[in-house]
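pls design
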């Protein structure tokens, strides 16, 4: 709140954000290319799916200067699985730390962020729904992807505006 001429008025922050959702099909080998990094850094918030990163992947492999990141590696379903697959990584500009937060993750397929833009609250649901004929079966959500997406939409639409993005493989 700021004081102006004896009255108190709220300080409003208006965010005009560029958001990218991209099935990246492997992240670590692409970050070495300046054109690729330049493309990513032209956005404020990035949701990248199919990163193929492990939970314990070296942060230096996927760090982007000026961005906060959260790596959501695929939950391991097979003990002897040597190849990483799936995974979501969220990036957002450092300047948005006060405005962006992760509020929910559902299995390997859904990530919900909250964007506080006074006086409004927005939610972005990022969804990665595997192709219908994939051999991968999610043990956490029993492949009820569209039901879960609908439930998330209903849950968060009661709290603010909702946008859905991602790779829905429809």
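designed seq:
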């Amino acid at each position: 709140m700021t004081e102006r001429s004896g009255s108190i008025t709220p300080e409003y922050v208006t965010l005009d954000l560029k958001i990218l959702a991209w099935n990246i099909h492997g992240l670590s080998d692409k970050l070495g290319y300046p054109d690729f990094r330049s493309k990513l850094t032209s956005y404020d918030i990035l949701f990248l799916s199919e990163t193929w990163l492990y939970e314990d992947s070296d942060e230096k492999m996927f760090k982007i200067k000026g961005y906060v990141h959260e790596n959501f590696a695929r939950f391991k379903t097979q003990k002897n699985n040597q190849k990483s697959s799936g995974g979501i990584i969220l990036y957002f500009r450092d300047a948005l730390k006060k405005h962006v937060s992760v509020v929910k993750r559902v299995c390997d397929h859904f990530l919900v962020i909250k964007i506080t833009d006074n006086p409004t609250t927005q939610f972005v649901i990022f969804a990665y729904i595997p192709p219908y004929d994939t051999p991968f079966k999610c043990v956490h959500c029993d492949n009820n992807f569209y039901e879960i997406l609908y439930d998330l939409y209903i849950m968060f639409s009661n709290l603010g505006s909702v946008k859905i993005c991602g790779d829905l493989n429809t």
